[in-house]
Structure formats: C-alpha cells, structure tokens
Specification:
This protein is of the alpha/beta class. It has a single domain, classed as P-loop containing nucleotide triphosphate hydrolases (Rossmann fold, 3-Layer(aba) Sandwich), CATH 3.40.50.300. Helix content is about 40%, strand content about 25%. It has eleven helices and ten strands. The strands form two sheets. It has a six-stranded mixed sheet with strand order 6-7-8-3-9-10, sandwiched between helices. Strands 2-1-4-5 form a four-stranded antiparallel sheet, with helices on one face. Helix 3 packs parallel to helix 6. It starts with a strand and ends in a 5-residue tail after the last helix. The structure holds adenosine-5'-triphosphate.
Length: about 250
C-alpha cells in the first residue's frame, strides 16, 4: 500500500489554477523529490496535501484513507508532518520549546524524541535554552526538521530545505535527511529547486511544470535524461532547439 497517493489534484488561487491534475505516489520508506522552477506549483502541492489549502478536485489518499479536506492538525496527529518553506520557527521560544511543540499531538514520550533529535542535531542540544530567533539559518532549518520529527511522522514533507543555505550547509542538511530515512525509516516527500542534491538524495522524482507533472521516475533514470541534464542540472547549454523541444513536448517518458 502506498503511504501517499495523489490523483488528478487541482488547486486554485481564485481563478488561477495552480495545480492541473497532479498524480503522485509515495511508497513506504521512499524519499520522493518534486522538482520544478519558480511558480511551478510545488508549494501549492505540499500545502494542499497538508490540508492548508482546499483541493479543487481530485483525491489524496494517506495510508489507504481519503484525507482531502481534513483539518491540518488532524493530519499531523495521523502522521503527516510538514516542514514549511522559510522554516517558520517561533523566534521568541527556546529551541527546546520549539521542539516540544512538535509533539503537541501526543501525550508523553517526548523526552525520547528529544534525545533522538539531539542525536541527529547536536548543535540544537547545545543551544536548547536559547531563543530560536538567535539561531543561524542552517540551525533554524535543523530545528524545523527536528520539530517535524517530534510528531513521529509516517510521512515527512519538506518544502525547499536548501532555501537560503550555503552549499556546505545544504549538503549537511541533505545528509541528515538521507540518514533519517535510512536509519529511522522516515518516508519523505520533498520539494527542492536544487535539482542536483534532490536527485542525489531521493529514490524517485517528479518534475512539475505549470501545475502539471511532466516527467517522473527513479532518480537514476531522471539523471540520465537529456532534458533533465539540460534544463535542471545545467550540464549543457540550453540551446534554442532544446527550448523549442521542451515547449513542444507535452508528456515525457
Ligand atoms: N497566494 C497566492 N495568490 C495567487 N496566486 C498564487 C498564490 N500563491 C501562489 N500563486 C501562484 O500559483 C502558482 C504556483 O505557486 P507555488 O508557490 O506553488 O509555486 P512553487 O513551485 O512552489 O514556486 P516557488 O519555488 O517560487 O515557491 C504560481 O503561478 C503562483 O504565482
């Protein structure tokens, strides 16, 4: 059974159709990456799955149950954790208070989870009594991921974990994402503009363009694709011919 199965999902901002029939599947234990340029609809997809936006049409099945339209707090309790773009930690609360908030849906057990988070992010333990607003960008990203983990998610969704981070920190964050997946078995759906690192880390990927999935498959296959190399990995010059080909193709294999 898929952890997450999205079928023909549409989402609107007023009259603007931001998702135009998106279908994706996330299996147990997978890291799945959604790639796409600015404005492709990546954040909209995450928000709609997390219950923060109403789906116009289509279905979202989580562990076999329909969740389209379910309240976001209920979805957290059922095992969906969203680490939002821009991190959104509570700046006046301490690091540890931010982490404990991540466990708000559960009674007890939070200390074990804190120990787990501190094991992956020792810097958060060092700074646990400091206000989160004083952390660097990378540390805030770690805190946001740690807070998401505190809910013991069955599916963790990460929106642009590399946003605003240096290449070195981005590598560090993605290494931890891969370890959490391998060691804790956390299933992950991540949105990322940095196609290099997303394709290195994920098992499977989807390319979203203008609200539609244009290409999908195992990351090994995506990396080998000429179009992905040309338009997302920047390995060759985007020739005029290439651009025309991109526009002409509606669906790819
Ligand atoms: N609040 C909003 N009101 C109106 N249109 C919006 C709003 N938010 C997003 N859009 C539009 O919806 C489309 C998808 O936006 P979305 O933020 O999901 O893209 P994205 O792929 O996440 O891009 P980015 O990488 O810039 O975050 C875009 O055309 C965008 O202009």
């Amino acid at each position: 059974m898929s952890v997450l199965s999205v079928r023909n999902l549409e989402a609107f901002y007023g009259a603007i159709k931001a998702l135009r029939g998106v279908s994706i599947d996330v299996e147990q234990g997978e890291i799945v990456a959604i790639l796409g340029a600015n404005g492709a609809g990546k954040t909209t997809l995450m928000k709609t799955i997390a219950g923060l936006m109403d789906p116009g049409k289509g279905s979202i099945t989580f562990l076999g149950e329909e969740i389209a339209g379910v309240d976001p707090a209920r979805l957290v309790a059922r095992g969906i954790s969203l680490v939002p773009e821009g991190r959104e930690v509570f700046p006046y609360l301490t690091v540890e208070e931010n982490l404990r908030l991540g466990a708000f849906t559960r009674k007890g057990g939070a200390q074990d989870d804190l120990d787990l988070v501190y094991g992956y992010f020792p810097i958060l333990q060092e700074r646990r009594r400091q206000a989160a607003g004083f952390l660097s960008g990378g540390q805030q990203q770690m805190l946001a991921i740690g807070r998401g983990l505190m809910a013991r998610p069955k599916l963790m969704m990460l929106d642009e974990p590399s946003l605003g981070l240096s290449p070195l920190l981005t590598t560090e964050i993605f290494e931890i994402i891969a370890r959490l997946n391998a060691e804790q078995g956390v299933t992950m759906l991540l949105v990322e503009q940095n196609a290099h690192i997303a394709l290195e880390t994920a098992h499977k990927g989807y390319v979203l363009e203008m609200g539609r999935i244009m290409m999908s498959g195992p990351t090994e296959r995506l990396k080998a694709s000429e179009d992905i190399q040309e338009f997302y990995l920047g390995r060759t010059e985007a020739t005029e011919r290439g651009q025309k080909r991109w526009k002409r193709r509606k669906t790819w294999r």
